[in-house]
Design goal:
The protein is of the alpha/beta class. Helices cover 38% and strands 16% of the residues. The protein has 2 domains: 23-31 and 262-354, Aspartate Aminotransferase, domain 1 (Alpha-Beta Complex); 36-257, Aspartate Aminotransferase, domain 2 (3-Layer(aba) Sandwich). Strands 2-8-7-6-5-3-4 form a 7-stranded mixed sheet, with helices on both faces. Pyridoxal-5'-phosphate (PLP) binds at residues 28, 82-84, 108, 153, 157, 182, 184, 210, 212, 218, 223.
Length: 355
């Protein structure tokens, strides 16, 4: 008899139906690979990798770049295999039996899974009708449950809305446990919305970022955290030695050096988000939520049927099944303009047929 760790069999799996989509819009990825000039430099850098060696200087190099960009010290930054690994380790480090982690709902579906994996007690705080976060209710939940970690996601996945920076600061001011701000999509909203400048004022705050979204580097699995040096020092203990491979580190290093090259794509995706939202809003059957990201959330009474119709045509969107507050919702990552025109035509055809 196989004796698995207690709780593992009840743990939900992160389940997204994958296949060879004609148009893939289900994971908030970038629709195209690296800009050609960046790809050329990445390939040149990869050709100089010492494949026989464990990672060494490479993590320090990229940390130095981020530190310089945000005027932080190098001890305040640490990289992981995607921000997923960073978040998982934070949940592990602040979790454990009897510790409570508070997070919004609906939000990134992995929070609930990491709570279970960390053997912690999860307290979801429901978002309002329009998916905004009631900061006072959130603070109350953190205090009443004596939480060890509070998490917010801004802009929020899958709802697309932004938590005003003043609300993020209000929460930081009013709680004293570790406070993680997941900024996976921040580049789409713009740096002025980032909580990073608040780190100097609130040493219990942590910001997580990723290279998977705006920098389109989902394949390499690179993300990082910024926090007070004392938090970083503790969290590092949860990682295995040499956890992040050199191929990903040097790729991310080149991408970060060349991050200006990504601005046209970020603007294009933001413009597409606006254009698509306007087009969809012309169909009264659809509710389209405001987005500060590279994806849109829409609600439609026949969303499940629509998703099946699109799947049959090779168009992959994210459906949330019966997830709380996301019934009849589809999340659509922005593709290229051509891809967006194709799927919107299909959506229109389906809706008109059902009228
Ligand atoms: C809100 C949020 N945080 C974190 C992640 C993890 O991203 P990654 O592990 O690719 O850095 C995602 C991925 O979809 C996300 O949506």
């Amino acid at each position: 008899m196989l004796k698995y760790r207690k709780g593992l069999s009840d743990m939900p799996a992160y389940d997204v139906a994958e296949r060879d989509w004609r148009i893939k819009l289900n994971a908030n990825e970038a629709p195209t690979s690296l800009p050609p000039l960046v790809e050329e430099r990445v390939m040149a850098r990869l050709s100089r990798v010492a494949f026989n060696r464990y990672p060494n200087q490479e993590m320090e190099d990229i940390i130095a770049q981020v530190a310089e960009n945000y005027s932080l010290s190098e001890e305040q930054i640490f990289f992981g295999n995607g921000s997923s690994e960073i978040i998982e380790k934070l949940f592990f480090a602040f979790g454990g039996a009897r510790h409570t982690i508070v997070y919004p709902e609906p939000s990134f579906s992995m929070y609930k899974i990491y709570v279970k994996a960390a053997d912690a007690n999860g307290v979801p705080v429901g978002l309002e009708e329009d998916y905004s976060l009631d900061r006072e209710r959130f603070v109350r939940a953190v205090k009443e449950n004596k939480a060890s970690l509070a998490v917010v996601c801004t802009p929020n996945n899958p709802t697309g809305n932004l938590i005003p920076l003043s609300d993020v600061e209000y929460i930081a001011q009013n709680i004293d446990c570790a406070f993680l701000v997941d900024e996976a999509y921040l580049e789409f909203a713009g740096e002025k919305e980032s909580a990073v400048p608040l780190l100097a004022k609130y040493p219990h705050m942590i910001v997580a970022r990723t290279f998977s979204k705006a920098y389109g580097l989902a394949s390499a699995r690179v993300g990082y955290m910024m926090a007070d040096a004392s938090i970083v020092e503790m969290i590092k203990k949860a990682f295995m030695p040499y956890h992040l491979n050199v191929l990903s580190l040097v790729t991310a290093d080149v991408v970060y050096q060349m991050r200006d090259e990504f601005m046209p794509r970020i603007y294009m995706l933001r413009d597409e988000c606006r254009r698509v939202a306007e087009t969809l809003k012309a169909m009264p059957e659809l509710t389209v939520y405001p987005s500060y990201t590279n994806f849109l959330l829409m609600k439609y009474a026949k969303a499940v049927e629509l998703n099946e119709y699109l799947t049959e045509r090779g168009i992959g969107m994210r459906s949330f099944g019966s997830a709380p507050r996301l019934e009849n919702c589809l999340r659509i990552s922005m593709g290229t303009r051509e891809e967006n025109d194709i799927w919107m035509k299909e959506v229109k055809r389906f809706i008109e047929e059902k009228r």
